From TrEMBL:
Its EC number is 3.1.6.1. The lineage of its organism: Bacteria, Pseudomonadati, Bacteroidota, Bacteroidia, Bacteroidales. This is Arylsulfatase. SUPFAM superfamilies: Alkaline phosphatase-like. Belongs to the sulfatase family. Pfam families: SGSH_C (PF16347). It comes from Bacteroides cellulosilyticus. It comes from the Bacteria. InterPro entries: Alkaline_phosphatase_core_sf (IPR017850), SGSH_C (IPR032506), Sulfatase_CS (IPR024607). One of its GO terms (molecular function) is arylsulfatase activity.
Amino acid sequence: MTSKLSLGLVVLPFVPSSIVQGQEQEVRNERPNIIFIMSDDHARQAMSIYGHPIGKVAPTPNIDRIGHEGAVFQNNYCCNSISGPSRAAILTGKHSHKNGFMKNWAKGFDGTQQTLPKILQANGYETAVIGKWHLISKPTGFDHWMILDDQGEYCNPHFITENDTTRHLGYVTDLITKYTEEWLDGRKDKNKPFFLMMHHKAVHRNWVPAERHYHLYEHTTFPLPDNYFDVYEGRYAAQMQKMNIYCDMYEGHDLKMVTGMDSDSLLFDPWPHAFLGTMEPDERRRFLDAYRDRNNEFHSRKRSFKEIAEWKYQRYLQDYMGVVASVDESVGEILDYLKRTGLDKNTIVVYTTDQGFYLGEHGWFDKRFMYEESFGMPMVMRWPGHIKPETQVTGLTQNIDFAPTFLDMCGIEVPRDMQGVSFRELVETGKKPRDWRKSLYYHYYEFPGFHSVRAHYGVKMERYKLMHFYVEDKWELYDLKTDPTEMHNLYGKQGMEKVTAELMAELARLQKQYEVPQNLCK
């Protein structure tokens, strides 16, 4: 019982320190819950905790909150920068050639194999996945699943369950948040720990913001990357790509551009059924009205090629960051839910994305390349009592490490055939063990495919990166210390012979370690 004194002070009941310590120890000993929140195509540049100029203009306070209360991963990467293969690597702890899902348009993920949710389920965890799945086959290893149909739609999306496929009215990020909270409220056995994969469609192409965010960044000018008008000198594969904002983006579908003044007819849109076609008539009218003044302003005068290219960049970023805003709100809602229900004390919360993304660097959108913007995966993690606030994880980590790390954190033995390794020690101490890895292996397979990015593999070390576009036998070498934006290919340059030989040897070592078939490297 508290009593108020005339001075306005509150006298709190005495709690022996031994009880407090005992409560903390109980939290530390109890098996943790895990909420794994993953968005789609969320660039590191668009998370303000990383300090990029874009994030400073359009902050993400709720995502940042996880990092401030826990850890920020500074060197986290994917093993294959495209949606489905990255998700398969996370589920299995294995590279694409081992888990069998190497391309987005593969035959479907082999759900009969060993996966993280299956192992957790067998060890007493209740498991669920809600949102984007994008692995073609039905989920396995989950007590509950409710997934989007393929890429999903932003407005009034279809959700698939074991029993049916149903259209749900609303904005996709809000619906995923709602159904996540409903599952948490209705868990069958609340004495069981749980593992929940909350997977957003956002921030995937074509970047349709929630209606409340249509005008959020309408008057914001985003900083243009210094290499926006890159000419790709000395980089063959970069010259051959089809992912340029000002040349390759679909002006109707992606940029919401119309045919003329006061027009309601979009320019090129190859997937109308997945865009305006998903909206109710009144929703479609409000959407078109929201863009009308901006589209009219564009058509009000003639513009040079450079002006149009920069205008398209601003439209892209305004929409992209508008979609990010809904994800950040969702994260805040989940964090508040956990606190409100007391689940925050023993729940690991992770926020990441399936891979990085280009926000105008090299003039691009999309991903696929081993260059830093798409190879890198931003990630923050919170675990009260285990991860200290403001921890910076600087060791090289990869998405194949997620499964072994979560198993380790849950006190479950990590299968020997998982290729990733637990980074629990890194995140709990903030320090790299002396024997921690010094390099990462990467392999992208999907060519021919969207955006014409050539198949390639490579090795990344702390300072240098070596890439091989093997069908054309083109090599690229970068010094990330002197050339962090990867503009100057040093392969074959005088003075780089020793570095090249060392990276070649390390690449061969990694391919042997991960048992990469040589027929996949030709």
